[in-house]
Amino acid sequence: MTFFFIILVLFPGLLLGSAYPGERIAKVRFVYDGDTILLSGGERVRYLGINTPEIDPEGNRHEFMAIAARRFNIKLVKGKRVRLEFDRQRRDRYGRLLAYVYLMKTGEMVNALMLKNGMAYVLLKKPNLKYKELFLKYQREAMQKRIGIWSMPFKNEEKFYIGNKNSFRFHRPDCPFAKRINPAKRVMLKNCYEAFWKGYSPCKRCNPATYK
Length: 212
Description:
The chain is α+β, with helices and mostly antiparallel strands. It has helices at about 1-10, 65-75, 110-115, 130-145, 175-180, 190-195, and strands at about 25-30, 35-40, 45, 50, 80-85, 95-105, 120, 160-165, 170, 185-190, 200. The longest helix has 14 residues, at about 130-145.
C-alpha cells in the first residue's frame, strides 16, 4: 500500500496514461486538416499556437497549401501515439482540446514541425502563449526560406495594415474590428509579410492576407 502511495505522489501521470503530470498520451485515429486531429478515444484536438490553410468541406475552393498541410500532418501523426501538452486554457469554444502535440517515437513537437516546414503560420491567442517566441523563430526561418505557404507572395492590396497588440491580429484599414482597436494597442504595418514576421495573424473578417 505504501509503495503505491509513493508512486501516486511521485508520478500521478501514470494513472492518467502519461508519465507527465497534467499531460496525456493517446493514439491518433483521424486527421481532419493541418491543425486538427481525432484521438482514438473520440476527442478532437486543435493544435495550439498555429493555424493551417482551410480545407473547403465541399471540396471546391481550398486555401493555398491546405491539402499539402493535411497530407503532411497525416504523415506525421495518423495511427501514431502522441503526447498532449496543455497550456493555461485546455478547450476552445467548440469543446476541442487545445494542445501541443508530441510524437512519442521522436519527441518532436508537431506544432513546431508544421511551422518549420511552412505548412502553418503562428496564431497567438491569450492565455496560451507558452511557446510564443519559439514559434515565431520557426515561422521566420520558414519565411526566409520561402517554403510552403511562404512560397507565394502576398498581394498587399492596401497601403498599410493595422495590427492589434492585444489580440495579435492584423486588419485592413477599413475593417470594423480595426476601427475598434484602442489607440494604445494599435500598430501600423507596411505589408502582410511584416505583419506575419512580427507575430500577427490575419483577421477572419477582412481577410487581409491574399496571394497574388
